[in-house]
Design goal:
The protein is of the alpha+beta class and 205 residues long. Helices cover 31% and strands 20% of the residues. The strands form three sheets. The chain has a five-stranded mixed beta sheet. The protein is flat, with a radius of gyration of 30 Å. It binds zinc ion.
């Protein structure tokens, strides 16, 4: 690249001006004969061996225990479980009310009632107090902002008409009470010893 062209490119970069480089221009690509460095996946990485190796590999070492894992993860499945248990153990605990859904740690299993939890415990012959259960919290429908909803149709200085705002206020009051789903909350569940009974025998699990 000539000096003047170089200065033009740099100046435009500083100014934030997008420069045009045509496919036939010299700066679009150059043929190199004397380069050396790391190459992976058809790309040249220069001295960056780490980036080149990562680009060319399919598996890496777990950052916690060192076992070989797919490179899209940073730690292995077992270490993920261990980390989840550590986080669970640090959670504040609260007694379960018997109704709010519970999530079994490290699974997608939700228990919506005492009966569901009881069935699971009977199937797997496990005491409910031995399970790592998280009390879920509700997710309600988000109110809709008319300014956002109609932003494409509004000019910069226009405001939402009062009639439309009032209509959205009514709508938002309704929809914000609609329960959509449950997600894991901040508390680990304490299941009372006498919370679950075997309904057939009357025995506590
Ligand atoms: Zn690991």
């Amino acid at each position: 690249m000539g000096l003047w062209r170089y200065l033009e490119v740099i100046t435009n970069k500083i100014k934030g001006v997008k420069i045009m480089i045509k496919i036939t221009d010299k700066e679009a690509a150059t043929y190199q004969t004397n380069i050396s460095g790391w190459v992976a996946g058809g790309r040249f990485f220069g001295k960056d061996e780490r980036a080149a190796r990562w680009n060319g590999c399919t598996h890496v070492a777990c950052k916690k225990c060192g076992v070989t894992i797919d490179k899209m993860y940073t730690i292995c499945g077992q270490c993920q479980k261990n980390e989840a248990i550590k986080r669970f153990d640090k959670m504040p605990k609260k007694e379960w009310d018997g109704k709010t859904p519970l999530l079994l740690l490290d699974s997608d299993l939700f228990f919506d009632s005492e009966d569901e939890l009881l069935d699971y415990c009977l199937d797997f012959v496990i005491n409910p107090q031995e399970l790592r259960l998280i009390i879920c919290k509700p997710i309600y429908a988000e109110p809709i902002d008319p300014g956002d909803y109609y932003s494409d149709d509004l000019s910069d200085d226009s405001i939402i008409p009062d009639k439309l705002r009032a209509a959205f206020d009514c709508l938002n009051e309704e929809i914000s009470q609609v329960l959509l789903s449950w997600c894991p909350g901040e508390y680990a569940a304490i299941i009372r010893e006498d919370a679950l009974h075997d309904t057939n025998s009357g025995n506590i699990l």
